[in-house]
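Problem 3 from the worked examples.
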Amino acid sequence: MGFTELNSVEHYIIHQMTGVNLNDSHSQNEVSEPKPKTFGVQWQFQSAEQIGQLGRGVNEVLVESELVKALIRLNPEIEANPNLADEVIHKLRAILISVNQMGLVKANEEFFAWMTGEKTMPFGENNRHVPVNLIDFDDLTRNDYVVTNQFRIHHRETKIPDVVLMINGIPVVVGEAKTPIRPSVSWLDGAHEVHSIYENAVPQLFVPNILSFATEGKELFYGAIRCPLEFWAPWRTENDDNQISKALGLAEIGKELTDLLSPARLLDIMRNFSLFTTNKKKQRIKVIPRFQQYEGANKIVERVIEGKIKKGLIWHFQGSGKSLLMVFAAQKLRRAAQLKSPTVIVLVDRTDLDTQISGTFNAADVANVESTDSIKELQRMLERDTRKIIISTIFKFRDAKPNMNDRENIIVLVDEAHRTQEGDLGRQMRAALPNAFLFGLTGTPVNKADKNTFWAFGAEEDKGGYMSRYTFHDSIRDEATLPLHFEPRLVDVHVDTQAIDQAFAEFKESAALSDEEADELNKKSAKMSAFLKSPERVAKIVKDIAEHFKDKVVPQGFKGMIVTPDRHACVQYKEELDNYFPEVASKVVISTTANDDFEFKQKWGVDKSQQEKIVDEFNDAKSELKFIIVTAKLLTGFDAPICQTMYLDKSLKDHTLLQAICRTNRLYPNKDFGCIVDYFGVFDDAAKALEFDEESVQQVITNLGELRSRLPQAMADALNHFDGVDRTLDGFEGLEAAQNAISTDDKKDAFAKDFKYLSKLWESLSPDNILDPYNQDYKWLAQVFESVKPASDNVGKMLWLALGAQTTQLIHENIHVGEVHTLDEFVLDADVIENIFNNPDPKKIKQLEKDLIQRFKKHGGNAEFKKLSKRLEELRDKAEKGLITSIEFVKELCAIAKDTVSAEKDLQQEVQEKSPKAALTDLFLELKNDETPAVVERIVTDIDAIVRIVNFPGWQNTTGGEREVQKSLRKALLKYKLHKDQVLFDRAYGYIKEYY
């Protein structure tokens, strides 16, 4: 039988969680007999058949008979009158039905309110409202935990998820298992199926969802509903060794699975770690914790409840989500009954971080949050014994009086705790709140020399002084953040090391400098200031920034940040940059002081609300703002995942440098690393730039030049797969020879793995002269890669990646090495198929197979062709494993070919009926209202004419193409005063993308 996703992974998951082995025929017979329920905190297996016997139909999400039993068991009022259970079921059904109207996230939020006991019904005496419990969170043994597989559910179409976990008849977890033996198939393919297919085809199933998971038996990743795949995360067990090269395999996955999916863990995540928040686009999103956030927050809560140790230091690397950790911890502390309504104080280190943390709390609708930046008000709140979450700034404690409140259930969470060394703030805090719990969180490790920080937060009982650590290596391993590379450029403008040391001696830079302090530093070192801001030097740097940005950042669709020596340098850089980019492409973000002259303030001052607008505009991929120019602002607490490159021309060191460069390490689609272009010479001695006791920090950033040295070997490894193949051979023969060299799935996947590594190096370095000698070979490899890519877009998403912008551009430069489109010369019609069927010639069969793959790729987005593609994939798989005869293979291949011809004819007819102009006309007539001019035909003709001028083949796959077409559409709509109708714009653009 061999290893399949069913017998190796899906059955393993079920065995791991319930002890039932479905590969054992004896066990299978056992589970087909319905067993009496045993309550307890463990999962029981029930087959889909058995669940059907409980009265659940294929259109139903809930096993209502089980939920009714739970309602009676957990609610005395319903136990007294069991008919009341139907009223609750009716309410829950209404949410399930309305998912398409209200959206999946809002429906999930509404259903969670029921599951967590927040909803009431008039079931008490005299119709008094009482809470309704669907789940018992206090005594977990009173719930019913069931695992099932192949759970069939129908909405628009029927889907069969591999594994579904139910609590009291409510499906709370969906899992997808993938084959463990094909290298290119990974957890990502399973996650894609859950996220892109199931959530859209059967959204009702996900209305009560806590989380979904996917595994191929080697790695386990999980995510919340509507969570983009790049934000799915691995789960680690608490005693996990922190090595990057963790031994992979089923046993490891078993540990992680049983840990993540234990009933207690799932219910804790549901109740205390599920946030519904609003993103920048005003969309509702759901956030669940990554492992380090869950572990860190729970360690805080456990320590407070235990009450013995009054402090703790948490080091979680920059970008790994400390703001959310604080939200989770604060929320769970406030809910803990043992703490009798505690006060949680969140202290941030400066005003711009205040907006990030309080913004996170406010967006997540956390109850009872108050912000204050006045010590008197904070003092008043504590004296009045306020029991809330209070957000304030750490510097307010400079004026704090001793014994402001001696209550024990006060918990202080201090962000960027290494700053507390300033002015002994830690001791002042402890004096003001003598019995409080003090927890320090930091994104950079704390040096032993920072005795104040360790005194205030580090507990002797904690190994190495940290209660919880999540290092740079951990965050790269878990793909929570991206690696960082620095690129030294224009070495002749670097500041010499001696001068830098002198600058630091003059103004010790242990804390982040404000804008004004940066100015002050430059006044003190007038010589250096004159050198840094000399017009020739600035002109030279800005010219280089413009070239670098246009070559390396623009093609990928990312943005940049420029860090200058002081506020006046910001203005200098901006004025110089305007020579290369439109004025709207860059903005200066600085603060002004009372001493600044009026004109400077008027022109360059940015207040809090303006800064927020600029940040939002910068984060919008479609906006024209490409650069933010700063000197001190936005170097900490500024989250802009779209920012990929920082142009650094300022002396930063240690904590401040690490925090600043990590502005570029956030995850963003198609972003592989953060880049620091160093003009100052900060990294001329990288070890000196990041002096920490924790030596691993020096590996946080590597020289981009190191990637150059890896290129020759990476190229050789990719070419080794084609030993003996003549790469000068053009046309179909050349391509066929290459494909024959990697004829099996294993060989293709091995090539894909090497090419993926090579293409990431290429994208990181391009454009660069070092690539020139390899251009020809790389193009050849890229085209072979495209030609053997699986036809189905949901197979091997991890290895068979979408090619990067630079590679795609290279392929389209049309140096012909057996162009993929030569395959279209193969005519496919009924006669050809009949001929192959009657006279099976291996060459023709191979050609038919290749032609089908090309056709499926061409119609990639069409559901009909996706099904046909899947059929072909399964057929090839069977043939490779020797499960069918060659005659059966030819027979089924010809059947697929016939269906393909038929589907193409149907599609052609559809396309003829719907020409681009006809499609747009239909749209405008559909959306027509009183304000839409009657001249629909003229609008459509205008749009059609403009779009045909600017578009080109494949424009939909390039950032530049999309931008041009969007601009033209906006222009055409402006003529008819329809440019502000966003719905119309989005729909029209969608049609243009599809039909042009």
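Problem 4, a separate protein:
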Amino acid sequence: MTDRQAPWTEEQVRALAPDASSLAAARKLAGRWRETGADGNAVWGLCQGSGAKPYQTVVDLAGPAYKCSCPSRKFPCKHALSLLLAWSGGTVPDRDAPADFAAEWLAGRAAKAAAPAKAKASTTPSPATVEQRRARVSAGLTELEVWLTDQIRTGLAQTDRSFAAYEAIAARMVDAQAPGVAATLRRLPAAMMSTEHWPELLLREYARLHLLVLAHRGIDALPEPLRAGVRTHVGYPTNAETVLAEPAVRDRWQVLGMRVSEEERLHTRRTWLRGRESGRWAVLVEHSFGSPNFTGEVPAPGHEMDADVHFYPGAAPLRVQWGTRHGVPEPFTTVPALGGHTIADALDAYAAALGADPWLRAWPAVLAEVVPALDEHGWQLVDAEGTALPLPAGVRPWRLIAVSGGHPVTVAGEWRADGFDPISVLSAGEVSDLETEFPSGSAPSPELAELVSVALLGTARRGVDGLEVAAAVTDAVPRHAGEPAVRLLDTAALQDLYLRGGRLPGTAPKPEAAADDPRPLLPRKAAERLRRMLADKSAFLPEWFAAAAPSDFRLPDVLCVQALTAASDVQLRGPLLRLAGRRGRWLAARNPAWSALLDAFPADPADAVIDGETSVVTQDVWLFGAPGERKDWLAQLRRSDPAAAREALSAAWAKESGPIKAELLALLEHGLNSADEPLLERALDDRRGDVRRTAANLLARLPGSAYGQRMAALVAAWVRVDADGGVEVSVPTEVDAQARRDGITDGTDQARLRWDTPDSTVTTLHQAVSAAPLTAWAPLVGATGSATAEAAMALTLPPRYAKAIVDGWVDAAIAQRETTWARALFANATPTEQAVLRRRELFGLLAAADRIEHVLDLDAHQLTELHAVLPGLDHPWPAPVADHVLRLLSERARTTGRQPHASAGVYTDRALLTAAGVHLPVDLAARVTALADTTDDPAWQQAFYRLAHDLTDRATMLEELR
């Protein structure tokens, strides 16, 4: 047995994932592993998939290398990642020897490694092939030069700029074996459509291509590094053998950023590396056709690895291939300041690289201690001295702004012609990818305006002599010699290089920084889970928010953007904004898309003062705060001192306006008592309908209120019960002023929408019944106490008003929290279809024992009723209910196993399975797994495995918050 290797950290495993979807899928397999083991440098296990035979998965940790019997083309696949996550979490036991399937594969790898290396056939082309290709390229570039000069001579405004025109010249370049040039030409039509400054864009690109044609024409006279660069830009192939033959550069390569792009189904992943010891930059480029299935060999951002890389030949070498790896990825927290981290250093490095390779479009840089700031010119990165570097015009780097919060951070990115493109940010020892939103246009360069004007009109109409360009450019271009179109392209190429290489930094003021949030930071694993759940709109979010609330965590800054975006859902808004806290409020104030959320932020806990054991937010928030802060202030005060909250609202009532008036009044629901009645009666006279309705609803809940007595009087006047239980109803079409003040017939179209009748008296009766105290029915039905509800259920209601009366009773029972009526209505009444959800609320008013008893009485043939009432139970479900649901599901699975074509398939019960995954106690995971192991039907077996995984996932979720 070899020495056992310590389990990798979860961060190391995550770094191996080819993409985020693979990692997410791997986490869902946590409960499906069997016969796992670890021995020396290997980990193995069996993972139950959708078929009867489990997948055999092995990981050779020395590579790492992966073997799985699944059909996935990703490496590592989700099963290998899940196995490594299980090993990292300590759930894979050590074994004395690998399983047979693992031992066979490991032995084959060992034998292959011990075998002598076979000589590879040379792929170096013959000199004749090289010369033939060069002749084709030269001929094609000569045609391109003619095409370019024709474009400039005719004028950009007059030439054909259609997709077909560019496709035609691009196809000719493909025929000439110059794919790099063809790719540039094919990108131009779409680029022109994205900016109003398309003439400048075309002139820049035409001048760049013109310079490339000239360089290729004299390629033999160029030094070898520049010669290699010209070949690369033209599109000559560089085979892997040539690159790997270059000297290996060993370093601890830090991954500072990663991006995936897609063009015509070709996915490209670019990874920016920087040597910890050398400070040298490298870019790893990988391609995958059809889907973004990349290898897991590249560490994730924020990790470094001791490895060799081989640079592609070039004048300013940047692209690399991986060579020998000397270790596994490890996280890093600092980036050494080798080569300089200032704005001036970045510009100098770019100028040097551009001098070596004039076709270079961008060069990476690290900027330390910079702050994103917005001024009249757009977003800038500003250092401590006020020196600024612009971001591309119109860019919206909200993740960067969220992480910074107005404080200095370290940013990695690329400097290019239109500004600094931020790729990642390093703050508090963590690297965060920046999902920057890029603009659809770009800013023009005034220094190129005159050249663009000539190109737009054409050199056939306007001369090129005497153009205002930099003196160095004027000296380099011969005057009054040669074709004017060629001279204009020469001048534009040199002027563009001069402007890009000689760019000077600007200045900008630093913004006001966000205040620090003293609350504890959400644990890293919990934050990562919240990110995934928000992206997936997980059904577990309510449970997560409830579990996190007592700890009053704050979000990691990088998650604030996702939280503010998700806060557009009103059900998630409250807990998300509380988690976002000060940083979220600061960020929302700077983005017009989130400015509406400012009114919804709760009061800042930092404004609280401690009074005994109660934290009360200072009154300044009530007087001067935003609507959300004021609501939170009043809610806190109402919980701690109901009388003081009522007095504060009464004092401010005359000055309140807008929707917040009703929202503040609704807060009196907590601790509602008779002392609130004067203010509520006052609110009945308000001009706003929502305020009047809120006041009426609260008054209806007050026993013995004058409002309730008025409603009871209306019911008594309109409803008469005969001795035999018959009911006669007489509702006037017009009610008096007092009834209108109380909200009766308050401008609703409820009768038509709820009961499908134009009869307005139906609505009038329903409003009175729903607002009247239920005790008002005692004299009408001739019963008292608990017998009142039962007697009311036995009444013979007139068909015209029956639904309105029953719905009124339901609404009244829920509003008044009357359990006796709720029990009678739940057992006997049938609300309208529009009120059926209120029946679930009636169920919630029943005693816990009664609710459990009702659920236990339901069998597998009453699933509709079961689905209707389960949401009315406590979370998680009580043990008897959980046992009953699992029994029902087990019976359904056995029925399907005995009768495969019966209507008891798993898809029929997916709603119940989903609810079970959300509400079953998490400690039942092992029981559900055992149920899956004994289930014969494959579909039901998978459903039970998924249910067990959901329970395990929820248990882990709750554990992460402790």
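Solution to problem 4. The mean pLDDT is 87. The longest helix spans residues 127-154.
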